[in-house]
């Protein structure tokens, strides 16, 4: 698989996947055929481009609905909405993210104190547990920066219930290595597997299921012996209160009448999905992969992030005929704006999680001065109010949301 972090490569991958996005996806998507060439064509593998904002969910859904009926593409559409749902859910319950950060830091400190735990953690992350399937995925994740959805579920389940390691350490391991490492999808999926998202309902990996859905791998089905198949779901003593933040209205040409800088970031690295109503006078790129974790970010994830920003900046500068620059961590952004004689910033929504943690404090003063115009995708604005509890609340609104956003003529 060619993971070139450009919008052109994302569009090319989308085009080649489109014929399979209908019933074929619904029937085949759970099979993990491994990373061998072409093996993963049953799934889109678009997540790194979607996460980086090189592609937008709306354009992916539009393209799919041009080739398939809503019925035939139902499953694929629902999966894209899972991403939007998780984003909206975390926005409304930000304490899930802060308590994850605190739990992760406690768990990392416990590794320092406990040699046995440290050994078990090393075996898990280096693929030396003796559970074949788990070890293969651990190495695949580190080497490629991608894991199939089913493998992520099995891996997280074995991590939590068989190896009995702290789920927050597992979520941190994923976040450091996945090219698509997303605070919402990752944290909430780990919680879902653990039984914390849908309270009392956890996901237990089974060897027969793993063998069945990995049978197409180049080296044959993966084995997984000794799994805890009767473990109880996890519980937590805290509730996470819900509050939908004020969502910014659609941005008009009048909002961007003054010269402004477009700020691209790790989850919005390309201007095209943003559909700006005016041309910026400057494009600024802020990439902060180190904000994912206090640990080391894996090289595929680092390379994808850096490449996405580089290509995003180059293409925005060419499209708008304006200069572009990188905003390095620690530098005051005000100086960059003053140098270019620009007052205002157009800021793609900073999603709850590591992207917001890294940038929001540095933009707070500009926000306070009223110099920031926030851009939010219409699909997110329309979906998030429904992301209050379970996915079902979003699922039953999908047709209405697609219609509201003019996607697929729906
Ligand atoms: C423990 C765990 C951790 C995960 N961590 C992440 C993460 O950090 N970043 C991330 O983008 N996804 C995460 N996922 C969700 C999912 O596994 C990936 O989005 C998917 O595997 C990406 O491959 P794909 O692009 O081929 O997906 P496809 O099956 O082709 O789906 C199309 C798109 O829909 C979205 N999507 C699909 N399944 C899900 C899902 N279950 N939840 C949310 N969005 C989904 C993705 O954006 C994906 O690109 C995680 C899942 C689990 C179980």
Automatic annotation (TrEMBL):
<dbReference type="GO" id="GO:0071949">
    <property type="term" value="F:FAD binding"/>
</dbReference>
<feature type="binding site">
    <location>
        <begin position="79"/>
        <end position="86"/>
    </location>
    <ligand>
        <name>FAD</name>
    </ligand>
</feature>
<dbReference type="InterPro" id="IPR005101">
    <property type="entry name" value="Cryptochr/Photolyase_FAD-bd"/>
</dbReference>
<feature type="domain" description="Cryptochrome/DNA photolyase FAD-binding">
    <location>
        <begin position="76"/>
        <end position="204"/>
    </location>
</feature>
<feature type="binding site">
    <location>
        <position position="76"/>
    </location>
    <ligand>
        <name>FAD</name>
    </ligand>
</feature>
<keyword id="KW-0456">Lyase</keyword>
<keyword id="KW-0274">FAD</keyword>
<dbReference type="GO" id="GO:0009416">
    <property type="term" value="P:response to light stimulus"/>
</dbReference>
<feature type="binding site">
    <location>
        <begin position="180"/>
        <end position="182"/>
    </location>
    <ligand>
        <name>FAD</name>
    </ligand>
</feature>
<dbReference type="Pfam" id="PF03441">
    <property type="entry name" value="FAD_binding_7"/>
</dbReference>
<dbReference type="InterPro" id="IPR002081">
    <property type="entry name" value="Cryptochrome/DNA_photolyase_1"/>
</dbReference>
<dbReference type="GO" id="GO:0003904">
    <property type="term" value="F:deoxyribodipyrimidine photo-lyase activity"/>
</dbReference>
<feature type="binding site">
    <location>
        <position position="25"/>
    </location>
    <ligand>
        <name>FAD</name>
    </ligand>
</feature>
<protein>
    <submittedName>
        <fullName>DNA photolyase-like protein</fullName>
    </submittedName>
</protein>
<dbReference type="GO" id="GO:0003677">
    <property type="term" value="F:DNA binding"/>
</dbReference>
<dbReference type="InterPro" id="IPR036134">
    <property type="entry name" value="Crypto/Photolyase_FAD-like_sf"/>
</dbReference>
<keyword id="KW-0285">Flavoprotein</keyword>
